[in-house]
Amino acid sequence: MNSDRIEKEIVIHAPRSRVWQALTDAEKFGQWFGVKLNGSFAPGEPIRGQVTNKGYEHLPFEFTVERMEPEHLFSWRWHPYAIDLTIDYSGEPTTLVVFELEEVADGTRLTVVESGFNALPAARYPAAFRSNTGGWEAQMTRIERYVVETT
Prior knowledge:
CATH superfamily: START domain
Strand content: 35-45%
Order of helices and strands: EHHEEEEEEH
Oligomer: single chain
Number of helices: 3
Largest sheet: 7 strands, antiparallel
Radius of gyration: 15 Å
Structural class: alpha+beta
Mean pLDDT: 96
Number of strands: 7
Strand order of the largest sheet: 1-7-6-5-4-3-2
CATH architecture: 2-Layer Sandwich
């Protein structure tokens, strides 16, 4: 059986309120995540936009917000590694991305867990899991840098 989840954790030397804003304000989220989004985040609502990371600007970006518990939990569902524009991913299962924030002595512990990979088509699982494992590592560094530098 393949691993069904990716988990990454980082302590950001900033108040939880600032980390929460970086996660849940669509414009701020886009700045560190590398996307330009249209609209704002709301539970049960999809949000769409465009990837802005160099070399990936041709890719659309979309997820549906699941839950927003202020300064504690933000989650969404998406189609991971949906990079082939010739494939319609809408019939595939989604994975669940959950960010949890916890106040700690040095600032805010931010944990991200993406789960549900075992439900993906077997042919897509390896690339999606590998890509998102590295992707979350990079994104945790990016949000830390964003929060610390935009003080």
